[in-house]
Amino acid sequence: MCLVKAGTSVQAQLSFSHVKKVLEAVIHNLTLAHVVQAHCYTTRHQDIATIRAVWESMLRGPEEKKELLWESEIKLVPLLIAVVPALPKDAAVELHVTASNDDPSRRTSWDITTKAACGSIECHIVLSADRSSASLSLSLVPSGDVLGITDVKCITEEVSTMFMKATKMIEAELVPQCARVFYKCSPSPVQQIVQGLEESLRNCLGESSPSVALVPVLDLPNSQILHLSCWLSL
């Protein structure tokens, strides 16, 4: 497959369009409106706003609008955009999504923010309309200098506690299947938190502990230093 020689906006449109076609090929009525978890990789921080604008415009496309019975109060699917050193074939954009074949307009979602020792933990949950699957995202946002974090154990426990609290809020017989932990790779305290978090999940969930993929990145949006995305299903 040849990569088109074009700017970030064009590459983003093509990438998202290809994902849309793959969804339709898997199940004929799937659209981008059915996406419940989306991760995008780019190589330049300054392209984040452009990529997000393309994503939002495609979600408001004719098919997705019809599928969602679009109204202004319906929230867009959160798109995590991580900045990485490089992508295959020198691409500017790469997109990974998870979708559910349900009624997107009848999903349940929660947004929770709690204080942490170093700042705040932001949590977003989406439960599919048929309650057969859910996505859970946790973001750790420091209030000051990352290198000033000293109580790594406390912060690790706070993130783990929020994760367990969020899974219980879903109130469905769902099991964590897989998780990605995106984290800024330079500050050493963050790496310690990630290692502790992985161990904590194994201890708390036992055999139900999800497969965890650690993804070091150069940067995350909105001052995040760590972002955990987990997929749950029956």
Automatic annotation (TrEMBL):
One matching Pfam family: Ribonuc_L-PSP
Gene3D superfamilies found in the cross-reference section: RutC-like
Xref: SUPFAM superfamilies: YjgF-like
Xref: InterPro entries: RutC-like_sf, YjgF/YER057c/UK114
Name of the protein in its database record: Uncharacterized protein
The species this protein was found in: Ilyodon furcidens
